[in-house]
Write a structure and sequence with these properties.
Blueprint lengths: L11 E4 L9 H27 L6 H29 L7 E4 H34 L4 H4 L2 H27 L8 E2 L6 H7 L9 H31 L3 H29 L8 H26 L1 H21 L2
Parallel strand pairs: 1-3
Antiparallel strand pairs: 1-2
Helix pairs in contact: 1-2, 1-9, 1-10, 2-3, 2-9, 3-5, 3-7, 3-8, 5-7, 7-8, 8-9, 9-10
């Protein structure tokens, strides 16, 4: 263990997880496993359902990318947590290498950042569809959708690499115990030797790029949409236009609300147990809600899922003697 005076970077960390509650580990394992399998099943079902649609409108294309991001997002964190819960006798925590911790944090931030940019892109898609319906097919072309999807992924990747390099260049000394179940940014900053506000500047910069800028684009898009809806004379047309935005708004509030509460805070307000509990909800429950929200609110997704499930039942019927 390194002394504070040396301030050397350790060769690895210990993920505390829930090792201080050994009697709760079997219950947590079963609960998280059930939620994880449901999340994987829901997002995979949406991916298969969208892939089965012959001509996919842009909103379904973006929704397919969102499900793929959520699928990878939960795979970055949850399998490791399940393995730690299923392994007895870990003592104070589960060891993770320095490189493994950096890679997990980088992937987590990259996928979360890509989702932030994607939600802003989906808001722009709704803006064009409602405010400029006659120009929609000419503006939101398949080529533009592909470029925007790639830009979302590259933007999240660029910010995550910069943030990871900045965080892992900090001096870590003393205890190497991360009071968390994965390598989260706030837990790593709390473990760093220095206590300067300058340590929080990379996280602040990432929050500005990943949270503030996309949220401003989303607010601008929905401000224009609200103005356009007020001009509609038909109540039925207004309800139909608003219903197309309901799912996106619900997912946006979930994602940005959780991310803002988790990361847009001073370092002094960090509470290991509280943040670990919130991250448990953020990384497990929220990805489970996304497929439910879209499958219940989006008619095209609902119809596609019914077609996929109907084909499955027909296949089972053909196999029956």
């Amino acid at each position: 263990m390194d002394s504070p005076g040396n301030a050397t970077i350790p060769c690895g960390f210990l993920l505390q997880g829930f090792s201080e509650f050994p009697h709760l580990k079997p219950v947590l394992f079963l609960l998280l496993l059930a939620v994880h399998l449901a999340t994987l099943g829901g997002n995979l079902l949406i991916l298969v359902a969208v892939a089965s649609v012959p001509s996919r409108p842009p909103m379904l294309f973006f929704l397919c990318q969102l499900s793929a991001i959520q699928l990878c997002y939960t795979l970055v964190v949850v399998p490791r947590s399940l393995a730690d819960l299923a392994t007895p006798g870990l003592g104070r925590g589960s060891p993770i290498s320095f490189l493994g911790c950096a890679l997990q944090m980088q992937l987590f931030v990259a996928l979360g950042g890509a989702e932030c940019f994607l939600l802003a892109t989906m808001a722009y898609d709704r803006y064009v569809a409602i405010c400029h319906p006659l120009r929609y097919t000419a503006v939101v072309t398949p080529g533009l959708c592909a470029r925007l999807a790639l830009a979302c992924c590259l933007g999240g990747l660029a910010v995550s690499v910069g943030l990871t390099v900045a965080v892992f260049h900090l001096p870590f000394c003393g205890s190497r115990l991360l009071a968390h179940f994965f390598c989260d940014i706030t837990a790593l900053l709390d473990l760093a030797c220095t206590r300067s506000y300058a340590d929080e500047l990379p996280l602040l910069g990432a929050c500005l790029v990943l949270l503030l800028l996309p949220s401003l684009l989303i607010l601008s898009s929905y401000g224009a949409i609200a103005t356009a809806l007020r001009r509609l004379r038909s109540p039925g047309g207004r309800r139909k236009a608003a219903s197309t935005c309901a799912s996106h708004l619900a997912v946006t509030f979930l994602h940005y609300g959780c991310a803002t509460f988790m990361y847009v805070r001073p370092k002094s307000s960090y509470s290991p147990r509280r943040d670990r509990t919130l991250a448990l909800v953020y990384t497990n429950v929220t990805p489970l809600l996304y497929p439910l929200i879209y499958s219940l609110r989006n008619r095209e997704i609902t119809a596609a899922i019914r077609r996929v499930l109907g084909r499955g039942r027909q296949g089972q019927g053909l196999c029956e003697p």
